[in-house]
Design brief:
Dna Ligase, domain 1; four-stranded antiparallel β-sheet; Dala_Dala_lig_C; alpha+beta; Rossmann fold; globular; 322 residues; 20% strand
Length: 322
């Protein structure tokens, strides 16, 4: 028996035939392959009958023909984390991990997420929605410089630019607009960067230990996220008990307010000037690579990578009644 195996043969068999969905067609395909490969190996190490399935290379008809009893979604970005795949799985009647159609769609849209958070009186940086006719000088005056420009439907910091001078705003807009129909400009908050992993659903949703991210020159970009060892992580984050509890509270409230379930990760900035937390975004299908933050937070609570994968898989279900 594998030293890390904790499921009995009977428990493993109870999951049935499991598909691990990874790869896909989004800009985050490479990261998804890393995440899914790790999840697949972890589930197989527990004796679970798990199989790889890449929706970027195989059709929904092939997915249906596999007769999976449940699937673990390890896709990131569009066509996997945005509700489209979740809707297909509901139609096919295949139980799946993570959030349902609506929460996945809303969580993938940073603008709609902000609107809902503000309606719940949750703190998030000021913002403006841009299009080709926007008065960028007016937006810069309103939000202040520096500011952040991003495509609202991408992840992994893809297409994000920090604008230090007004003259650079148009170029930053063009980068984001090449990836998305709308563009989000956001107030830049000078602060420490944290993430809060959340497991569970509804009243049972709970926050894991907080991770602080300290990237080189404060630049937690795609390269520093996945491909270097220069970024430092502190988990549990060094914060006083009251601030830790408050950040975990608003992260869980942010997760619940969108209707998220199963698992997710909420990114938070802590403003240096006054230690006020600001919510940035929620990830409804977070990374599960060797550098990823949800597994790191789970380890700090004594949950191994394999245990985490099994717990998430156990929560797989169809969300729509009918």
């Amino acid at each position: 028996m594998n030293a890390t195996q904790f499921l009995s043969a009977q428990e493993a068999q109870a999951f049935g035939k499991v598909g691990v969905l990874f790869g896909g067609r989004s800009a985050e395909r490479d990261v998804s392959i890393m995440s899914g490969s790790g999840v697949l190996a972890a589930l197989q190490s527990q004796g679970i009958d798990a199989h790889a399935f890449d929706p970027g290379q195989r059709s929904l008809a092939e997915l249906a023909a596999e007769n999976f009893d449940r699937v673990f979604i390890a896709l990131h970005g569009r066509f996997g984390e945005d509700g489209s795949l979740q809707g297909a799985l509901e139609l096919l009647g295949i139980p799946y991990t993570g959030s349902g159609v609506m929460a996945s769609s809303v969580g993938m849209d940073k603008i709609t997420t902000k609107i809902l958070w503000l309606a719940e009186h949750l703190p998030t940086p000021k913002y403006a929605v841009l299009n080709a006719n926007s008065d960028l000088d007016k937006v810069a005056a309103s939000l202040g410089l520096p500011l952040i420009v991003k495509p609202p439907h991408e992840g992994s910091t893809i297409g994000i630019t920090k604008v230090e001078q007004a003259a650079d705003f148009k170029a930053a807009y063009d980068i984001a607009a090449a990836l998305d129909d709308s563009v989000l400009a956001e107030e830049f908050v000078t602060g420490r960067e944290f993430t809060v992993a959340v497991l569970g659903t509804g009243v049972n949703a709970r926050a894991l230990p907080i991770v602080e991210i300290v990237a080189p020159q404060g630049n937690y970009d795609y390269q520093n996220k996945y491909f270097t060892d220069d970024t430092q992580y502190f988990c549990p984050a060094v914060l006083d008990a009251a601030l830790t509890a408050e950040m975990q509270r608003i992260a869980v409230q942010a997760y619940r307010s969108l209707g998220c379930e199963g698992w997710g990760r909420v990114d938070v900035l802590l403003r240096v000037a006054d230690n006020k937390p600001f919510l940035l975004e929620v990830n409804t299908s977070p990374g599960m690579t060797s550098h990823s933050l949800v597994p790191m937070a789970a380890r700090a609570e004594g949950i191994s990578y394999e245990q985490l994968c099994v717990e998430i898989l156990r929560s797989a279900r169809l969300k729509m009644k009918g």
